[in-house]
UniProtKB/TrEMBL annotation:
Keywords: DNA damage, DNA repair, DNA-binding, Endonuclease, Glycosidase, Hydrolase, Lyase, Metal-binding, Multifunctional enzyme, Nuclease, Zinc, Zinc-finger. It comes from Nocardioides silvaticus. Signal peptide: none annotated. Its cofactor is Zn(2+). GO terms for molecular function: 8-oxo-7,8-dihydroguanine DNA N-glycosylase activity; damaged DNA binding; DNA-(apurinic or apyrimidinic site) endonuclease activity; lyase activity; zinc ion binding. The keyword tRNA-binding does not apply. It catalyses: Hydrolysis of DNA containing ring-opened 7-methylguanine residues, releasing 2,6-diamino-4-hydroxy-5-(N-methyl)formamidopyrimidine. Residues 243-277 form the FPG-type domain. This is Endonuclease VIII. SMART domains: Fapy_DNA_glyco (SM00898), H2TH (SM01232). One of its GO terms (biological process) is base-excision repair. InterPro entries: FPG_cat (IPR012319), FPG_N (IPR035937), H2TH_FPG (IPR015886), Ribosomal_uS13-like_H2TH (IPR010979), Znf_DNA_glyclase/AP_lyase (IPR000214), Znf_FPG/IleRS (IPR010663).
Length: 292
């Protein structure tokens, strides 16, 4: 799933490619992706792109006062094409293509963006709005960990208000802290040497300082590594720098212990027992139910 660092890098890459260019057409190949009806999608045709920015994990293409906003969900991605096909895409359940954004011709080519979503579970969303705050998911976002306003005191207030909720869930809830998902919450907790099941309001002052530093350092380093990369390079960059997420059964790069996994209904988390839980494996609740 694209998270804050990847979407930040996508916004930077697309800003350089799109700013000042005209959007000539937006083709919707997966009708379930379009979540708005006013303004009509045709309203963005002929507009000039002014900026591309990020709100949490939302990608926002601003064009002549309108905002074409994408949430890439779990399996979405954006692919730049130097030339798009002249024939509009046909709706198909078998094709990963969800949306195609066509730009004005340049140097004899008609470039554009293909917004795709892999798999059968279709959650990718596109909104055309006059203000990003018209998108409920953006309006409800928590503070952004890259903002200077996200301080240790702000984090302390969040954790206290969340009570006994598990710290893993608090970190990845977008209404609590914007932009952190399943992968980077695993990485942050590993860097902080903290159990994903630790209650949010149970941290000591020292643990709070450690967690705050882990959030800033982990997200900041990922953004720095991703900055300047093309969209086609971002997935590989992310994967190559993960310490525990997606590395079940492999050695922890810090202590050498085996990375473990806890599975849920539709997701999983990874952690290192030695680094995070005092050497004790966490119960895999899904597997425990199967054994009963």
């Amino acid at each position: 799933m694209p998270e804050l660092p990847e979407v930040e890098a996508l916004a930077l890459d697309l800003r350089g490619r799109l700013t000042g260019r005209a959007i000539t057409k937006v083709h919707v190949a997966a009708f379930s992706a379009l979540k708005t009806f006013d303004p009509r999608l045709a309203a963005i045709e002929g507009t000039l792109v002014d900026d591309v920015r990020r709100h949490g994990k939302f990608l926002d293409i601003e064009a002549s006062g309108l905002h074409l906003v994408f949430h890439l969900a779990r399996a979405g991605w954006v692919r730049w094409r130097d030339e798009v096909p002249s024939i509009p895409p046909k709706p198909s359940n078998k094709s990963p293509l969800a949306v195609r954004v066509v730009l004005d011709e340049a140097d004899g080519l008609t470039p554009g963006l293909d917004v795709t979503e892999a798999g059968t579970r279709k959650s990718l969303a596109m909104y055309l709005v006059r203000d990003p705050q018209d998108v409920e998911g953006i309006r409800r976002l928590g503070p952004d960990p890259l903002d200077d306003a996200f301080t240790r005191e702000v984090l302390a207030g969040i954790l206290e208000s969340e009570g006994r909720k598990q710290i893993k869930g608090v970190l990845r809830h977008q209404g609590t802290i914007a932009g952190i998902g399943n992968a980077y919450s695993d990485e942050i907790l590993h860097a902080a040497r903290m159990s994903p099941f630790k209650p949010a309001n149970s941290l000591t002052d020292e643990e709070l300082a450690t967690l705050f530093a882990a959030i800033k350092d982990t997200i900041g380093a990922a953004v720095d590594r991703s900055r300047g990369l093309a969209a086609s390079e971002l997935k590989a960059e992310k994967k190559s720098n993960l310490a525990v997420h997606g590395r079940t059964g492999l050695a922890c790069p810090v202590c050498g212990d085996t990375v473990r996994e806890v599975s849920f209904a539709d997701s999983s988390l990874q952690y290192c027992p030695t680094c995070q839980t005092g050497g004790k494996p966490l119960a895999d609740r899904r597997m425990s139910k199967l054994l009963k």
